[in-house]
Design brief:
about 160 residues; about 55% helix; mainly alpha; 8 helices
Length: about 160
């Protein structure tokens, strides 16, 4: 069967992986990925199939295939990382907006209401122009962090 992603380690990469695996002093996933690459190397002495590698290292064949792909697409260093770096999430509320939200939640509720609801707080923050859009879930998480929400029946 023809493989789309073929691992061909250089001598330097192979020796680096062998040293890493032999020492055993690294993150467990990094060691696992190193073993997978060593066994999957088409120019190396082993040349194991994905099924045999998966069985020997007690992982799925999808893991072996994913490591092959990461090595071919992203390079040697990235393939050894325990987790592919994700895109950092942008904070909806910065410190200033959080302070406005907390102050708003501690203020008197609108007429006809006994207390602020989370959705009402989110809508009011948008009305006041502190944020462009705000989810009630973001408001809930922010107020949960403070533990001083007037929306809860038992403050403190």
């Amino acid at each position: 069967m023809h493989k789309k992603y073929v691992v061909r380690l250089t001598e330097e990469e192979r020796s680096q992986l062998e040293t890493l695996v032999r020492s055993g002093r690294a993150h467990a996933r990094k060691l696992l990925y190193g073993r997978i690459l060593l066994k999957a190397d088409s120019d190396g002495p082993d040349r194991w199939t994905d099924e045999r590698i998966a069985e020997a290292l007690e992982v799925s064949t999808a893991t072996v295939a994913r490591e092959r792909r990461r090595y071919c697409e992203d390079g040697f260093e990235v393939a050894l990382m325990p987790k592919k770096p994700g895109k950092p999430r942008r904070r909806v509320l910065d410190g200033r907006a959080e302070a406005h939200l907390i102050a708003l939640s501690c203020s008197d509720p609108p007429e006809g209401r006994d207390r602020w609801s989370i959705r009402l707080l989110a809508d009011r923050m948008v009305e006041l122009g502190h944020v462009g859009a705000l989810s009630h879930e973001t408001v809930r998480r922010t107020l949960k962090k403070t533990r001083s929400s007037r929306t809860s029946s038992a403050s403190g």
